[in-house]
Amino acid sequence: MSNTSTELACLNIGNDTFECCTSEDPSSRACQAAFPAFSNGEDGILDKGCRDDFLTEDAPGCIAGCQRLGLLYGSYLQDGDINASGRGPIERFASCVNVPAIAKAKAKAPDSLPEGFMAQARHIEDVTDDGLVNVTSAVWTSRKKKGRAKYTSRPSNQPEEQALKTPSNEPGEGEGIAPTASGASTEQETDSLWYILLEEFHKTQCLFVATLMIASLTLHIYGHDMLQNFLLMPISLNGILPVAFTYFLLVSHNSNIRSPSGFGLAALTVIVYALSSVVYWSLYAQFLPFSSNTSTPGIFSAVSSSLSAIPACGHYSAFALCPKIPAYQASLGDIEGAGDKLLVLTPVIWAFSTVVLLALLASQFRYYYYHWRRRRLHHEHQHDEEDFKSAAAVFRPPWVGRQTTEAAASHASKRIRGSIISLTFSEVAYIVATMAFLAGMGMQLSLLSVPWTLELVDPDGWSFGQVVAVTIWVPPLVELLYEFEQKRRRRRERRAKRIASSELTTA
């Protein structure tokens, strides 16, 4: 495109049929569709969106109407006819998104313009820079992320063509909403399903573990029943490492968890983790007196007493009093080995999980505090945009890069050419933490095998608790299948709408 060419309007923004009309080629198909000759009797790009029902007393012109989100994304008024195409918001957006470019072209008055250009430009009156800024903000700025602050300092022309062809992840989640017209990509939808499964799994896990921990507290865990301790201590770790691991994955892969809407999930995680920690350390304290007794097999004696000192036997027996009977010496090694595992491995698992969880919570707190501080700065400087920008620049979160555009591009090119050395600190930390979590999961699996090693439970017999422990995971899997089917249905609907829109455009 030459320097003398002026971009006038763009059609089918967000679709594969995206094209723009320029003053360099006023006879192109895009120009004929956007600015049809009056003799053709067809509606142009602004005729469709700036209809009479789009204009109100408060917003009498096209520029004023395009600044009103309620009008911009509302439906057409209908009198009696219940049939509708649903194209009201689509046509209004298609008109309003081109208003800044048409207004600028009208002011420049290029040498070559389409025949019907001025017929469309008549819809644009009382042009001001503030008005064009507000129109640009309404059609391209996501209010969900930007809030009320206006970060646009001047009216923009059309975005780059390649950017418009790239679909966003969710409606209202990027710098603009038009790219979502073609829908999210298959890869993005797969990521969304992964987040849904992981989040539902985490919620189910937390609720299940919380129930187990409350039930454990009712079993008088502060007594010296070593059999009970051997069974419950590995189970208590289910609320430690797995909970911290899934929350780590959620925060690492989904930034929405750090938004205020993710506070409930953080609170649930902390409550379950605290309950599990109370149960774990209460059980761990019961092992310490026996672990310090090196002259006799203390843990073995305690387990023996738990097995035989029952009320029917007077709370003691020869087996309990004589732990060194040769017939039972074979069990000594297994019990002492299991006790050593519980005494050595479990504190390591708890310490690592706690450090990671505290780091995640600190990151979230910093994120909340940053946005609270930024909103406060905007409130203090809401009448002076430059003061707000300068004040906000002083307080920025540590994860926001401070590189210039050239430095960022250079860094990106180096990373493409580089090896593992070019990984950022956060990526290295993520990989190391994930590997450590996987190692911890291996440790925990070895601890969960302790009851089977000591033959305290029958792996072939399914009790009431085992049935509940398995069936509790059915709802998240059912919801995943449901979401998967919903995604497929929405993809089919979007594909059908794109085909219908393309046919209407060509017609």
UniProtKB/TrEMBL annotation:
Residues crossing the lipid bilayer are 206-224, 230-250, 262-283, 348-369, 420-441, 461-482
Task: Give the Polar residues compositional bias ranges.
Answer: 153-169
- Keyword Transmembrane (UniProt): yes
Assigned keywords, A-Z: Membrane, Transmembrane, Transmembrane helix
Ranges where the record places region Disordered: 146-186
The molecule here is called Uncharacterized protein
Species of origin reads Eutypa lata (strain UCR-EL1)
